[in-house]
Fold these 4 entries.
Entry 1:
Amino acid sequence: MKNLSIFLLILVSAKSFSQSQKEVYSIMETTAQKLKEKSGAYSVSVGIVKDGKVYTKHFGEIDKGKGNKADDNTYFEIASVTKLLTGQLLAQAVLENKINLEDDIRKYLKGSYPNLEYNGTPIKIKDLISYRTALPRNLPDDIGIRKTMSDETPFQYNALGENYTKDHFKQDLQKVKLDTIPGVKYNYSNLSLELTGLMLENIYGKSYETLLKENILSKAGMDHTKLELGKGEVLANGYHASGRLMPKSISHLWGASGARTKSTMGDLVKFLQYELDSKNSIVQESQRNISNSKGDWYGYFWDSYGLSEHGKMGYKHGGAFGDQLWFAIYPELNTGICVIVNVSGPDTFPALYNSVARLMNGLTTKPGKKETEGYYLKGDNVVFTYTHPKNLNSKLINSASVAGSFNDWKTDNKNYQLTKKEDNRFELEVPKSGFEKGKTYAFKLVLNGDDWINASKNASNTDGTDDNNLTLKL
């Protein structure tokens, strides 16, 4: 039991130590170099907000062999991170009682749209913000393009959108057909966001761009976030994973989904600070668990908002033709991370995901002796264990489970649910006889059915993969 006590002490105290500026930048560099290698990006930019301080650093070069390193004022396309801005505008409209989450969206559209319902059930505002509208992914229709994705695809998208106007969008919106009842099935939809931009313009009588500037960008001091660059302003080059130079996105729609937005790391760390403001009622509304989900939720257009070993966490991934970025906040630790790579391909998303997990791990785990994590042995049993840091809100944990190669990674397996032993500690005893002696099993602890816990950098029993799984071997 001595080893268990040490393990619990490490977890409980892991989140409460400070780091020097040198240590933070060292962690950033280690993470960025590995990400650069894994993603194939020429350029990696990292921004961190931690303990009220801002850190930014840039690695590599925009164009191979040119030595043109990015800086805090380099413009990148931020793609779907724009959806968080759109979400805040909609959250503001809710708080101002201009709309209601239970409203039929057609209340805020001009013209007739009898097709925007399914068997009498209309699309509501709450369906819009949680990607449950039953609307197609895009307008104009891109089903044909999406069947075969390659480094030619961005050029095909631009050809599809270069003459597509807002009027075309409204006409096509009258023709779309819902494929199920709204509010039931998750289906990521850029169409829904452009529709939101149109609705916001109808609600306020101002352009989407003006609403952004007046209500968010000016307040956050984000002077370098815009839908159109000014004279002399240049967008950084981005590349496909194949190495091919990618075009800049062409769109003549509202821009609410992200096809038009450019920003800088200097502005994005300001946006991290803005999203971490616990006193900003609009920000808090945009992150709220509206559906009272026992697992993850979406707030207003987040990719996911839920729980991690670092407490509450919300993230948004932005994927442009030639760059991708990860934008994440950890409100309970007052920490935010943004990472940009100037490459886009099928493996970029997991490379970003794993890199941010490693980065956050480095920022929150105090260096110490390597110890076994996730389980200990007790007589004839293996005891899987998870202890949530005491300075984080353990009341957010509705369930804890263990999933691994021994149960086909099923988080809902009833035989692998942990039981609460204390407010912040959960355990499960499993007979050793259920595991083959000498065989190595990979596993992770899981909170609320959705949130996979990453091994800390002090764990001695990891599998060395990018997934950073824990291992069990008897």
Entry 2:
Amino acid sequence: MKNLFSSQFISLETLPSTPLKPLMASSLTHALCQDPPPPHLDDLLCSKPQQHQTEDDNDTSLPDTSSSFCLGSPSRYLSGESRVERAWSHWTKLGRPKLIVAPMVDNSELPFRMLCRKYGADAAYTPMLHSRIFTENEKYRNQEFTTCQEDRPLFVQFCANNPDTFLDAARRVEPYCDYVDINLGCPQRIARRGNYGAFLMDNLPLVKSLVEKLACNLHVPVSCKIRVFPKLEDTINYAKMLEEAGCSLLAVHGRTRDEKDGKKFRADWKAIKAVKSAVRIPVLANGNIRHMDDVQNCLEETGADGVLSAESLLENPALFAGFRTAEWVIGDEKRNRDGNLDQADLLVEYLKLCEKYPVPWRMIRAHVHKMLGDWFRIHPHVREDLNAQSRLTFEFLYNIVDQLRELGGRIPLYLKDVEVDTLAAEVTANGLANNFCNTW
């Protein structure tokens, strides 16, 4: 696991020739929790960015953008074959990351991305940014995009429905990311009202123009995150159209836009496999990734080049390091062991990252509910204390963790016992060998 607590927070406000500031995200929607406090309190930043005193920390040079610009000049004059080659060249230079934090509104902010990276994530998406607001509103722009030097590879995701506006927004972030991503998968009502996300599936010429605009004018590659159509043929044609328009990487959520409930609807890995077979650019699979067995099975069944996880990471940010919650151990206890880590430990690490990289309290509150959800079901009065707290402090949240520990009933995260698996494989192999010898 990587040590990321010493990483330097990049103050984009102080960097030369940049329109961005490193404040934290103020998103379009509020995190959901029981009995939410007055929003003006939870919208406050949890603390001020730390002031670095050393000579190295005071370095105001731009972050390393060499990986971002490996595509060179915009690809408006490249043939289809050349675009595919450059797409793979870029993906390879990034190390072909396989374990990726999906974009989540109010949830995939910098401290959470850094926590997931420590526990095995190879890359991550920002929360969705609204391209029009990002270009028009300085306050939104200054608060919404936050990163640091160690926050790479990074996808910066926008929703958009105007090519020129989208390009304006994308140019502001391209020095600090490895892909500019188009959200073509959001199925929520706000996306329908705003005419973006999965509802652009009804206007494919507009989608094509969005991709072409960026592919022909940005120095970083364009990626797209999509949902599938009810008909497989439509999905394949959609993916091919995006590739031809200049998309360099495609993330496919294996559910339709009407299948919003991930627990009710299983993602269609066969559709993802079909897309992977139909296009020549890297493809990521999204859906049904709850633990590392799912990761392995998904990669094998779809042939995808990597996987995205969202909801499961919110409960267990150490998922990509092999840890799993008790829910996925039931019935297989003998093959799993206490990993000497629990969600309270992860929350403490997250809070420390929030002290280093400030975010609005509502984001922190949402993560507390997600990471401690199992604990709160055992001790609901602690959750009620949290909900009653209109103004959060780090001291209060650290005390909640201490209180839960004192109450007992620790809920560990589990690791698969590799030694048990190895032993079982040896026993099986020996048994097969003995049986084979006995037949002769």
Entry 3:
Amino acid sequence: MSSPSYHTSILCKYYLIISLVATFFMLFFFNLTYISSQYVDSSIFTMKCEEAGPKETTANLSHLMFVLVGSSRAWKHRRTYIESWWRPNATRGNIFLDVEPSEEFRPWSPTFPPFKVNEDLRKLRIYPKLANRVHIRIYRSILETYRLKQDDGVRWYVTGDDDSVFFVDNMVDVLSKYDHTEKHYIGMFSETIKSNFHFSFDMAFGGGGYALSYPLVEALVEELDNCIERYHYIWAVDHLQSLCLADLGVDLSLEKGFHQMDLYGDISGFLSSQPTAPLVSLHHFETVTPLFPGMDRPGSVNHIMKAANVDQSRMLQQSICHVRASNWTFSVSWGYSVHIYEKIFPRSYLKLPIETFRPWWHGGPPPFYMFNTRPVSRDPCEAPHWFFFVSIEQEKEGVVTSYKRKFPRNMTSCSFSGNTSADPLTTIRVFSSKTPKPGRKVECCDVEYEGANVAYMRLRDCRRHEIIA
């Protein structure tokens, strides 16, 4: 069947021909002087041809279908992660479990995504040969979602685990850059080299989530079980997915805001220097220490979402400014932390994460990561004073986030700066605009400090050719 735009194009051509013929007829059969003396409304011959049908709306949250996977046994410990970002009656999707949830969760809370139990894999003829039956169950959740016929208006499928946290407003903004009528596979590889080496450098890691445009979903579900048979020996579901999509002619488009978080331990150094890209997801909370000192893992996730619920566009976005009189450098990771260095450092250096964390795969010589890092230092000129996010306030003229020192630095001051210590500071207040920050734009800042225990930072647009150094 021909598309509406095709018929519209034909009609436009007919209108043009008719207009030309009519003009010729008038010029040929009527007195030209008479015609020139009359007012001929040019709009008679002006045909405005528009696309048939209603104009397409801007992307919004209702266009995303979340395909979340987990297990009933782990739900008790992981439900808080999904609850932190799920918006009842706004987000669409389901959580797929291996078996029915326990009576402890009956009736099912409306703050959870609706649950579905995956189909029995034993019906598949390839079942005895499957290398990883758990991962195949997870993979087929895409097919089972499609068969639910809940896709009215859906433009994207977004996959994730029960311990994935999504920043859905940023997700919408990121996906809006792509033509959802084309086939797209969008995500990010692992942070660690060995994870990518063992599986693939060309696949999105599903814990951090990935997005499939709806035309790609339609193509995939027709071949999904056939692809499982073709690659039954593949162990990891994300690797399998990349192979299936490659065979459909679609490769991965990278977006740096998806985070698999294949890291161990304290990830504060990473979160304080997140790439300049909208934060889309975080994962693997149970293998890292709580995001904030003095909190447990669920509590720390709920805490960071307090900032995210006000302004996701600035989440973990780094802004750097200097106090020349004291030789201090301030670096804020919005909604998470502020660092103060007792020395002037350029942005080119501070954008490198402090290696407070360890790689997912232990052992062997470096390099470990897909990005450059800087070491943890005991040099008072290199080690920052750490302040962590405590509160957020919405005021008439903007948004104010506050950060407090959680532990003393326990170092002498940097002699390079003339022994000007930042130890007296206990609180940093950061002022930002209510206007969302464009995706990859870097904001600059100014600092107001008069020698008390509080410093004030104000984020702003960088001046033309401003040097952050």
Entry 4:
Amino acid sequence: MASPSSCFLLLLLLLFSGQVIRGGLSMAVGINYGQIANDLPSPGRVASLLRSLNISRVKLYDADQNVLSAFLNTDVEFVIGIGNENVSAMTDPAAALGWLEQHVLPYLPYTKITCIAVGNEVFKGNDTTLMADLLPAMESVHQGLVSLGLETKVNVTSAHSLDMLGNSYPPSAGSFRQDLALFIHPILNFHSATKSPFLINAYPYFAYKANPSAVSLDYVLFQPNSGVVDPNTNLNYDNMLYAQIDAVYSALRAWGHPDIEVRISETGWPSRGDGDEVGATPENAAIYNGNLLQRIGMSEGTPLKPSVPVDIYVFALFNEDLKPGPTSERNYGLFYPDGTPVYNVGLHGYLPPMSPSSSGMMMMMPGFRAFVFALAALILGLEVAASGTGGRKWLGAEVTAEDICHPRGPRWCQVWQIRDGR
């Protein structure tokens, strides 16, 4: 039977690791966490904000080690990214394996990385070399996961722009661009073989901005409207986003892949824009994202796939002040960097203060957590060698000084398995 001191110390470990049991269900919505800014809160504070919002699905555009470390021992699932600038390098299987060993392996299973997006909107530009390298890079990353025994836990995909469609109206006639067939066909074969999702960045805002006189604002904002009927299926669409999703499903089916799941890796609405960016207002952004969150909360499917709840990552968590391009690009965030909402969509979170004296900050500091683990291990009576070898075996794993003091990764987390064996 464990001694009272052991129970107390294990409770202490639980508290300082942030593993306090919380009530309520996590929101089904995902959020894009971009970091092209110079005024964002630290990843540890962001972890607290998302926890307070009950959001447990996050998409990154890289594999930021500070972010992944800040979310150790949380229930947040991550999509991490390999930027376009690194896609060509990933065609080398050794490089892909090395990338996985550095950016994925040290964090699993304590940070829940479930998906790797190789490249972003590769087919939006004219770089045919990048286009040709995309599939080999995806294959190399997947093979690396296989060699590490992680292929059933982490899938490989890429996020695409709707520009890859040659036709999107009506949704039943959705089709891919024929000039991209050489690249897209084998990528679809890869998705079918690996059972990985097909990611699309879809923005009804762009359609409205391009032709506000012809596109109904109510239709793109999920507001009450008469809808648009697909003449081939007689399905009625009351919003553009669902029509865009079903256009992608139709394109996949037309090329022989009705089995591939479509997920929306980005969608959102800017709260500010330049003079020629019609509709970019906080009012419209609040309506779009507010209605979108309600639809997601209802586990709603599209007219073509009514029994399959839409899977969506909202863009974005914060406004990003260093993003290039028009003003709208810097104003897609749901929150300002200080944690206050840009507009009200019913999300009320808490961003901890920056004060290092706060208990929240102490819990975020890997060094402090490592100290608590080391102290507890010593009191529990572990005879740990000062070097990285010769440690004591505990629950089948050798525990060394390096295990206790390692600030992140599997060896550090083995300390969780310590129990009183005296």
